[in-house]
Design a protein that fits this description.
The protein has about 180 residues and is an alpha+beta fold. The protein has helices spanning about 5-15, 55-75, 90-95, 100-110, 125-130, 155-175; strands spanning about 30-40, 45-50, 145, 155. It is elongated. It has a two-stranded antiparallel ribbon. A two-stranded antiparallel ribbon has the order 3-4. Helix 4 (about 100-110) crosses helix 6 (about 155-175). It contains 6 helices and 4 strands.
């Protein structure tokens, strides 16, 4: 008998411990174990892989494939499968082609009395998906705190500020592209 939960635990331990969201910051990529479904017969681990450039992203996928191959070589029974589904890459490569949209977002924030802070977004965003679908869309602030955790929240004041910025951005964009 092969207990798939032990194999899943081995795989988790093979991943770089210092390359998880809680141990990285800024432009460092990471492996994020987001869920696990385990039983004796079958276990499934779902990871998010994040990196800020395509080469780093490719290296992270290759490392996961290497670890799966290592475990499979060690096994007498059973096997491990790896499915990698690319959902999107970093939006920077799409946004860089349209620098004017960053300037529009900055000026909308400044017009609303908010000083823009340009910093990397470490995770999946609607802006990344939209950018790769052909609509370059940088992230702008939402006024929220503690993103993607059980303590995520936003204040009413933060929501109001975000709405004002979005309205100002729409106004500036309409003026810029008015015929």
């Amino acid at each position: 008998m092969v207990n798939s939960m032990y194999l899943a635990a081995q795989f988790i331990q093979m991943m770089p411990a210092q390359e998880t969201p809680e141990h990285t910051e800024g432009y460092q990529g990471f492996y994020h174990l987001k869920s696990a479904k385990m039983s004796v017969a079958r276990s499934q681990l779902d990871y998010l892989i994040r990196d800020f450039d395509l080469a780093g992203f490719a290296d992270r996928k290759a490392l996961m494939q290497q670890k799966v191959a290592e475990l499979n070589r060690q096994l007498n029974k059973g096997h491990i499968e790896l499915d990698i589904i690319d959902s999107y890459a970093n939006m920077k490569e799409k946004i860089a082609e349209h620098p004017h949209i960053i300037e529009l977002a900055k000026s909308a924030m400044q017009a609303c009395g908010i000083e823009p802070m340009i910093k990397p977004i470490r995770g999946g965003t609607d802006g990344a998906r939209l950018s790769f679908m052909g609509l370059p869309c940088p992230n702008i602030f939402t006024g929220g705190y503690n993103f993607h955790g059980i303590h995520e929240f936003i204040t009413i004041e933060g929501m109001e500020q975000a709405v004002r910025v979005i309205m100002k951005l729409a106004e500036k964009t309409a003026r810029q592209y008015a015929l």
